[in-house]
């Protein structure tokens, strides 16, 4: 398939490398000219926790800066575009990069944490088919052209009814089935789902429990389970979020706490994106993760003191 990936952070590099290695035509759009040139010269180094390392050669991946997206036709030839930028960059990218093609037909798969981005993108891109993607893959960017696959997870993709004005009950078409097939061929355990709303809220609470605590304590995911005191704080955030969901009749399935523990174990060596943002002095996604829980709590009149405190602590770490 022809896949364009917007964003060359840890997940963007991981998916680009593995999809290209599996024989797909991959174009990677980078924020900086320097990164695009480096990947175009060196390819992508893909490292594994077992110590193995493979290099996806530069002739397997096309790379351009996002600033060239308009001039190069807006990925007209793509079967799918993967949006792998963080929440804080979505509105700017939608306005400056994607909006000129808002009336064209594109298929956009959105890998963002938190909530609200699908509705925003739907306003800017009314003719596009929008998909939500939930992944628990662990990745750590080691350099502009190097990524560590820090933990295997799953990738679930599906349309949201509110993003396309439909009932959400449509049958999968051949293109969607082929996309999941190619993801699995590339080594990503992947699925199509008609229950993406539930998946999004599961991932939201999972991120709200794991990511900010790794950032505050400066620890990797697996270290959250190292002491009863840490687990107790995780559980307090989880219980508070669960109370909000129940008050708002928000679906989140079953055994979510067990899945949170499992994700910590399966990505034990992973440095969360929020911790990396804090270490590098960047704005985090806390406003879209814990902030989403806080806003829903106000809407449904459920107190969220733990999430409010966590949000203030994280936002106070960057000036």
TrEMBL record:
Belongs to the ketopantoate reductase family. Signal peptide: none annotated. Residues 3-161 form the Ketopantoate reductase N-terminal domain. Keywords: NADP, Oxidoreductase, Pantothenate biosynthesis. Residues 196-316 form the Ketopantoate reductase C-terminal domain. NCBIfam families: apbA_panE. This is 2-dehydropantoate 2-reductase. Pfam families: ApbA, ApbA_C. It comes from the Bacteria. Its EC number is 1.1.1.169. Catalyzes the NADPH-dependent reduction of ketopantoate into pantoic acid. Gene3D superfamilies: N-(1-d-carboxylethyl)-l-norvaline Dehydrogenase, domain 2 (1.10.1040.10), NAD(P)-binding Rossmann-like Domain (3.40.50.720). Pathway: Cofactor biosynthesis; (R)-pantothenate biosynthesis; (R)-pantoate from 3-methyl-2-oxobutanoate: step 2/2. It catalyses: (R)-pantoate + NADP(+) = 2-dehydropantoate + NADPH + H(+). The lineage of its organism: Bacteria, Bacillati, Bacillota, Bacilli, Bacillales. It is an enzyme of class 1 (oxidoreductase).
């Amino acid at each position: 398939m022809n896949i364009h990936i917007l964003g060359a952070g840890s997940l963007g590099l991981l998916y680009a490398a593995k999809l290209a290695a599996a024989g797909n035509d991959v174009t990677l759009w980078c924020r900086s000219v320097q990164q695009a040139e480096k990947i175009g010269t060196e390819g992508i180094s893909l490292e594994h926790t077992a110590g193995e390392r493979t290099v996806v050669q530069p002739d397997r991946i096309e790379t351009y800066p996002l600033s060239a997206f308009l001039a190069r036709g807006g990925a007209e030839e793509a079967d799918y575009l993967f949006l792998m930028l963080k929440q804080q960059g979505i509105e700017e990218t939608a306005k400056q990069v994607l909006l000129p093609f808002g009336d064209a037909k594109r298929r956009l798969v959105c890998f963002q944490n938190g909530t609200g981005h699908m509705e925003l993108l739907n306003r800017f891109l009314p003719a596009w088919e929008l998909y939500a993607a939930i992944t628990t893959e662990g990745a750590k960017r080691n350099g502009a052209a190097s990524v560590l696959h820090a933990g295997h997870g799953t990738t679930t993709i599906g349309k949201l009814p509110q993003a396309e004005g439909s009932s959400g009950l449509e049958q999968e078409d051949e293109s969607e089935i082929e996309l999941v097939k190619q993801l699995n061929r590339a080594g990503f355990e992947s699925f199509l789902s008609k229950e993406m709303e539930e998946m999004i809220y599961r991932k939201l609470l999972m991120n709200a429990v794991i990511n900010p605590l790794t950032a505050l304590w400066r620890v990797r995911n697996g270290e959250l389970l190292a002491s009863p005191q840490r687990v107790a704080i995780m559980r307090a955030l989880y219980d508070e979020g669960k109370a909000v969901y129940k008050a708002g009749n928000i679906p989140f399935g079953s055994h979510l706490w067990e899945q949170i523990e499992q994700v910590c174990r399966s990505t034990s060596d992973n440095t969360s994106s929020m911790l990396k943002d804090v270490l590098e002095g960047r704005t985090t996604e806390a406003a879209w993760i814990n902030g989403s829980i806080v806003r829903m709590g106000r809407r449904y009149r459920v107190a969220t003191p733990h999430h409010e405190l966590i949000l203030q602590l994280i936002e106070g770490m960057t000036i």
